[in-house]
Specification:
binds molybdenum atom, binds iron/sulfur cluster, alpha/beta, binds ligand MGD, molybdenum, Rossmann fold, 30% helix, YoaE_C
Length: 683
């Protein structure tokens, strides 16, 4: 029998995956004698249907890992590598933190304190609830949450008015599926399962990627492309669609703004020109455009890969125009998904309480953490890190670590493990896993909202984010009611959102009863979009007023000089960003950090598969094992995974990545850096 009671020692408990992954799977947690013994997929979940990834099937090893933090600690040795910590009580930890902060606020103002977090756990009250209330009340510096998808999200919004796309459950009806810059076999496995269903009904699957990885190998047609050039390919497709009359004129008339301007504008993107930019042969561009123009419903899954570039926002904005040209939004399963988060938007002001902030504070782009710590004036004196591991995941990692190394920086890290970042902390706090917390979750891909109830008691003395902020607030002397709200109250306030009727059927009560509920999402078309014109904006006056080209445009990547290779350090299959990168089983499954390169490039450098390559630029260096072959184009090198600082590993790929920001959203440009490669000298 299924139950939702946390106290029961034995049973099967429905749950939800908390990781930063679009699939947001329904889980079943098996408990014996109070301990989680097995995690499997919930077969009753309509989208994820009982299938889960390897990473989470092995999650119990992480939850009960003996390296998990059990109590608060203070640092007793030097910062960083070789740091040592000593157990303290929660009282001492909270007292130490708040007394430092009170003094800092008095001496230098609250802006000298910077919270730094991301989505190590996607639970909303823990990642953007009590924490935001607390730092708003304090008046701390604000963080721009830009490390993941912000460039593409802003770009997509200019075209479509927000993160509104196709319902993934409908994509089984598509006859053509394009996975564009997404390694879906690893990063969105249920989209792959849905595509498989479509394939059984005759759909063709195309993958456009810089790397022929597991997703490229699964495709019916893999199209290799030079990184950062996808906007040009999309414009070349548009050129052919207009030239060959493959557009849906009625749809363009009724639902788009600026199609005549676009028709004129794309004349310049002749396939022969586009081919030179993208590395895609002109005949393939014709074949792709004709397939796209003649197949319906067609669906494009727009990944994160194309927007981790200097031109990423515009690239996503451009690809997002394609379904409009052929009227795909009116066909069940047709259209595109970049992200679907806007459908499920909860009451953000009610949850985060920006009104608690008395005066504006500076905002710091998380992609510039290194320079923020080293160069800002007035300086950051204290950093509070939770739900994130910036020493490993942030761009220009050596600069980040140099900043974290500052002796006068008072750093607190709240995490489940002594991460690379925690090694630089003054105080380390142990965090509960999502299975120990109450929270609500909303997918950014499918349309379900989930409630998570605790299925185990907190590990050691660990505490949930929400609980730590309640303690900090009390000790700071903040008496605002909002800082004492219960988990249930926070969830109720967030879900009570008259501005989003799609959540009308979702409340704390209905979630308690059902645990996951599909939002009441109305079809996008026919209807008004949330763009200024209410239509799909092929021409955007809003962009024009902000200084962007108003029409979709290809802009080359920033010139990093004559370094021979463009470096794409992408995620891997068995880690989730840096989560699991310290877990033995996951490391074994991933084997070794590799550098995929073209055979011709490798042999020109005297490299063969299995050699260790030194990869470097003026930001840093790392060592990766060469995998030579034909899965990347010449001039491109690709690695996979954010590998941990472990003995014998010199695989900190972010030592090489630029901290330039993308064209939109202050986004990260992880994949736009250039490097040199050589055979490592054997000592
Ligand atoms: N297994 C696993 N799953 C994950 C994650 C993980 O680390 N591991 N991370 C999670 C998170 S936080 C996110 S944001 C998502 C990200 O997942 P995805 O949306 O799949 O994005 P990435 O994996 O960053 O990149 C996808 C692909 O883009 C390709 N690429 C890079 N540059 C270009 C380009 O210019 N053009 C084209 N066409 N392709 C390019 C890369 O080779 C890669 O195959 O996955 C989530 N799920
Ligand atoms: N080179 C390169 N770098 C990248 C990327 C890439 O593709 N290439 N991808 C980027 C992207 S898309 C993203 S989203 C970022 C992700 O970067 P991060 O958000 O930093 O993700 P993780 O590395 O998984 O770190 C999450 C941390 O949160 C902790 N955690 C989990 N649950 C909780 C909790 O409930 N409370 C607290 N306090 N801590 C918790 C975990 O133990 C873990 O240490 O990385 C970025 N970095
Ligand atoms: S990481 Fe993604 S695929 Fe794996 S269980 Fe969690 S939501 Fe599902
Ligand atoms: Mo991400």
């Amino acid at each position: 029998m299924l139950t939702t009671m946390r106290d029961e020692q034995n049973g099967i408990f429905p749950s939800v995956c908390s990781l930063d992954c679009p699939d947001q799977c329904g889980l079943l947690i098996h408990k014996e004698a109070g301990k989680i013994v097995k995690i499997e997929g919930d077969p009753n979940h309509p989208v994820t249907q009982g299938a889960i990834c390897n990473k989470v099937r092995n999650m119990t090893a992480r939850i009960y890992d003996d390296k998990r933090l059990q109590y608060p600690m203070k640092r007793v040795g030097p910062k960083g590598e070789g740091s040592q910590f000593e157990r303290i009580t929660w009282e001492e930890a909270i007292e130490t933190i708040t007394s430092r902060w009170k003094k800092l606020i008095e001496d230098e103002g609250a802006e000298s304190i910077l919270p730094y977090s991301f989505y190590g756990n996607m639970g909303r009250i823990g990642t953007e609830g009590m924490d935001r209330r607390f730092f708003n009340r304090m008046g701390a510096s604000r963080l721009l949450y830009s490390i993941c998808e912000s460039a593409g999200t802003e770009g997509y919004k200019y075209t479509m008015g927000g993160s509104f796309g196709t319902d993934p459950e409908d994509t089984i009806h598509a006859k053509l599926i394009i996975m564009w810059g997404i390694n879906a076999v690893s990063t969105n496995m249920h989209q792959v399962m849905l595509a498989e269903k479509a394939r059984k009904n005759g759909a063709q699957i195309i993958v456009i990627d810089a790397h022929k990885n597991q997703t490229g190998r699964w495709a019916d047609w893999f199209i290799p492309i030079l990184p950062g050039t996808d906007a040009a390919l999309a414009l070349g497709i548009m050129h052919i669609l207009f030239a060959e009359n493959l557009v849906d004129e009625a749809f363009l008339q009724q639902f788009t703004a600026g199609h005549e301007e676009l028709r004129e504008h794309v004349r310049q993107y002749d396939p022969s020109v586009v081919s030179k930019i993208t590395g895609v042969p002109a005949h393939d561009i014709y074949r792709l455009a004709r397939l796209y123009g003649q197949t319906s419903p067609s669906f494009i899954r727009i990944g994160n890969g194309i927007q981790h570039h200097d031109n990423g926002g515009m690239c996503v904005r451009t690809i997002a125009c394609l379904p409009a040209l052929t009227g795909q939004w009116l066909h069940k399963g047709g259209g595109a998904i970049k992200g679907n988060g806007s459908y499920l938007e909860h009451n953000i002001p009610a949850l985060q309480r920006p009104d608690l902030r008395e005066k504006e504070a500076r905002q710091i782009n998380m992609n510039l953490l290194g320079s923020a710590l080293l160069e800002l004036d007035p300086p950051i004196r204290s950093l509070y890190v939770y739900n994130s591991n910036p020493a490993l995941v942030a761009p220009h990692a050596n600069k980040v670590r140099e900043g974290l190394q500052r002796e006068d920086l008072f750093t607190v890290v709240h995490d489940l493990f002594l991460t690379e970042t925690a090694k630089f902390a003054d105080i380390v706090l142990p965090a509960t896993s999502s299975f120990e917390n109450t929270d609500f979750y909303r997918s950014y891909w499918h349309q379900y909202v989930h409630l998570q109830l605790p299925v185990m008691t907190p590990y050691g003395e660990s505490k949930a984010n929400v609980d730590v902020f309640r303690l900090l607030a009390a000790e700071m002397g903040y008496e605002d009611e909002a800082l004492g709200d219960t988990d249930e109250a926070l969830i109720r306030q967030a879900l009570d959102h008259p501005g989003n009727p799609a959540l009308n059927n979702i409340s704390y009560e209905t979630l308690l009863e059902k645990l996951f509920i599909k939002a009441d999402v109305k079809p996008l078309f026919p209807g008004e979009l949330k763009t200024p014109s209410g239509k799909i904006e092929l021409y955007s006056h809003e962009m024009e007023s902000k200084g962007f080209p108003p029409l979709p445009t290809y802009t080359p990547l920033v010139d990093e000089g004559d370094l021979p290779f463009l470096f794409v350090p992408a995620p891997n299959h068995n880690f989730l960003n840096s989560t699991f990168a310290h877990n033995e089983k996951h490391i074994r499954m991933e084997k070794t950090p590799k550098l995929h390169m073209n055979e011709a490039d490798a042999s020109a450098l005297g490299l063969v598969s299995g050699d260790v390559a030194r990869v470097w630029n003026d930001r840093g260096e790392c060592e990766l094992v060469v995998a030579a072959g034909s899965d990347v184009l010449p001039g491109v090198v690709v690695s996979q995974g954010l590998w941990a600082d472990l003995p014998g590993n010199k695989a900190l790929v972010n030592a090489l990545t630029p901290d330039r920001v993308a064209d939109m959203g202050g986004g990260a440009t992880f994949f736009s850096g250039r490097v040199r490669v050589e055979k490592r000298e054997v000592n």
